[in-house]
User: Fold this.
Amino acid sequence: MIGVLLVDDQPLLRGGFRALLDAEDDIEVVAEAGDGAEGLALARERLPDVALVDIQMPVMDGIETTRRIAADPALAGVHVVILTNYGFDEYVFNALRAGAAGFLVKDIEPEDLLHSVRVAARGDALLAPSITRRLIGEYVTRPVRPGPGTGLERLTNREREAVALVAQGLANDEIAVRMDISPVTAKTHVNRAMVKLGARDRAQLVVLAYESGLVTPRG
Assistant:
């Protein structure tokens, strides 16, 4: 059973999401919160698999909530998915940097919401290659800040190559073709790189690749 925490200051939205999610045999809403501080406390208490977190809330916003969940070792199994009214914007970018697994717009189709919750619960990032390319597009306007201690020195050459391809928006199957390896091996390279770099998911891996200077944005 996939446990979901709903964190949003709009009771009507929470009620709609709860009704949809609880109707599924494999999903259960374990708690609701009206702000980020309450959501963080409930995450620690209920340990959900997925936390659907609104990006703009009173008391503590979604970015800070995400950051605190990502920084807490006891909450390593909680996958944060950001809810937004606006699609990809500055807030979403900052939430991904803070450790969110991905984002959803609030007017998402019901079947897409259910699929996204299941994807997040598996530990996969909600960043399709097209979304990754949008993330890259946002980052093009930001300065790269390479520096020591990024962890890149711990990667093998093949792992570095795989990370660079992830940062270009390629999926594992595409990485496999580019590197002339099997999809399973490509996934292994990516997963090992995530562990070595301390990235929670592909979203953070993309950000780290640019911030470390491994990949340079093309303007």
Remarks:
- The first strand starts at residue 2 and ends at 7.
- The chain has two domains: 2-126, 139-212.
